[in-house]
Amino acid sequence: MIKDxxxxxxxxxxxxxxxxxNLFLKLNNRVIVIDKNIPKKKDxxxxxYNFDLKKIKLIKNLVNKISLKFNKIDVLIxxxxxxxxxxxxxxxxxxxxxxxxxxxxxxxxxxxxxxKKMVKKRxxxxxxxxxSISSLYGGELQAHYCATKGAINQIMKSICISLGKxxxxxxxxxxxxxxxxxxxKELSKNNSLKKYFINRTxxxxxxxxxxxxxxxxxxxxxxxxxxxGETILVDGGMAINFQ
Length: 243
Ligand code: RM4
Prior knowledge:
Elements: E1 6-10, H1 15-26, E2 30-35, E3 46-50, H2 59-69, E4 75-78, H3 93-120, E5 126-130, H4 143-163, E6 169-175, H5 184-189, H6 191-200, H7 209-220, E7 231-234
Helix pairs in contact: 1-7, 2-3, 3-4
The protein binds beta-L-rhamnopyranose (RM4).
Beta-L-rhamnopyranose binds at residues 83, 132-134, 139, 142, 177, 182-183.
């Protein structure tokens, strides 16, 4: 599938990102993690950069620092995201800006900086965004979050058009409800919501971070060389199960 590549992933210290890191390491790749938290895993091919993605103005310096150590990035995975659940009528500008900066703005400008390097070095790169089922459907406590994920889908499509002539594939994976740090507190408080998601899913279970990571592996590999500008929903069929 993919080996001896250099993968850069944001939010790689937990949840879906951690599952992707473990999978890419297992397949003998070099994996660079950008996160606020240190990865639990220790591996000679795992490289960690402690960075707060809301610090948009420092992204260019971070990429230059990474580029000094790695002569190329083959796969970029914009995975980091936050979802502080809050009622629409209570979301203030500070919270809105935080979610927008982390989930959307940082992904945009980190992609721009890495894409500049890919183009300059003629890397046939793969860029993968972790979007969400929430890019397609609303959420009572996620008005700010859903907006960022909808934006990610459209940013992905436009970047796909811009970078296609440089042989760079750009796609998005859209996880359904996957239990990670982003939602485990919310779902543990609201067992009926978790049961609803499971019952609504034809597979009668929630999708795991590892199952999302496998789709990322597909999009990072030559198996998906003909796919660009695509959103792949990975929700076990939950979204289509209305009746
Ligand atoms: C996902 C989906 C899940 C939620 C996470 C935070 O898009 O809405 O149900 O737990 O976001």
